[in-house]
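# nightly structure sweep
# worker-07 picked up a monomer target from the shared queue
# config: single-sequence mode, recycle default, output format = structure tokens
# input follows
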Amino acid sequence: MTMLFTLACTKAQPADPATAFPAASAAASAATSTGAAPAATTAAPSLPHIVFPDSYSLIVEVAADNDTREQGLMYRDRLQDGEGMIFLFAKPGDYPFWMKNTLIPLDILWIDEGHKIVHVAHDVPPCKADPCPNVPPNATASSVLEVAAGMAAKHHLANGQTLRFEGLDHIIVR
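# output follows
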């Protein structure tokens, strides 16, 4: 069975990146207020994060229900290198995404139940006019990771690599 999942919603207001990733923003603010440069993002064990094969740890905002998955990263005007959004699905499927109301380019990674990357879409541009095209994985996935454009290339992410999910075991997927 092929499932079509597209992200589109116009009812929500723009998200404030400082509140979307409060721990990362607080750390950056603390470093800035002391005059120190913000440290490279390393997720605290209690925060949901994904670890890349090169040991880079990415703090993730979790989209585990329809409303959050529909909103996704729409209306955000920036996404830091150490931040992303993981879309969790109750059943594996073929989940095309689109970039409606998304203001920034993204890398999109589809991930199977074993946390292996099954498809990477690099530098997906924002949709500027309707109809917005779908970005299909042509593969079965149980989760999708969105990160800032260029991050997949920077960390050499490719099909077949396994990512480590941490702090996500308690999430209820609806």
